[in-house]
Amino acid sequence: MKLTKAQTKSMAEVNRLVALDRRLTEDERLFVLENFQEGANHDNSAMGAFFTPWGLARDFSIEVPSGCDSIVDLCAGIGSLAYACEGKAKSIVCVERCAEYVRVGRKVAPDAIWIHADVFGDWWKEFDRFDAAISNPPFGRVRADGYDGRYKGAEFEYKVIELASRIARWGTFIVPQMSAPFRYSGKRDYQESITDKCRKFLDQTAISLDANCGIDTETYRNDWHGVSPVCEVVVCDFESVEQEEPADIPTAQPVSMAQPLSQLDLFAMAA
């Protein structure tokens, strides 16, 4: 991804802030969140790394339960959602496979526990069941080594939600609009609409993807970096789902050995 002169200048300041030994101020943390370019040093299209705009992350946090003991942020990126939700729980665990994003994330969300690992690995064995899971996962047919859940389709976002159902009691997720069983963002009114791929996920997992309180992600469509996806925020009550033991999820191969991910199909359509 080629940066503009303004983006290059902002990234230089981001790198300076991240390199500081001290804890960043609130303004500095927000500057990093808003100006870090995920595609500057990585093929973020292949990785599915498109970070949540700050405004959307802030609205997203409304649908995360307050007073939690623990929250897990799956595919955390540099911690946009974790930062927005840090007042919701006593502890937040961020799981991210990209070492560079973890390095930056530790400055954005310094009070979180950062785990550099494949989300489908066995990192969860060190923790009790989480009160809530949050995620803006990669969208579409992204490679998911190590996944072995009840959902047998190809969409990465559904695999993350299925994993979350095994390790958390509640979930709040950003998904492509076509992956939600409703249309709200960018529409004149709420509409129920279930695609074949969404029906497959619902039937295979018995997980209900419920509507949020009225978050229109269209408001932030132009605030993403390099893409402009149409999304929805879905919520899940995992307590009502009959679960298999998390131990059924095999250990993923180490991050350093992971194969390159395939190109996303969703963002090509959403751009």
Automatic annotation (TrEMBL):
A GO term for molecular function: methyltransferase activity
Top-rank taxon: Bacteria
CDD domains: AdoMet_MTases
Phosphoprotein as UniProt keyword: no
GO biological process: methylation
Matches recorded under InterPro entries: DNA_methylase_N6_adenine_CS, SAM-dependent_MTases_sf
Keyword Ion transport among UniProt keywords: no
Keywords noted in UniProt: Plasmid
Protein name: Methyltransferase small domain-containing protein
Organism: Paraburkholderia dioscoreae
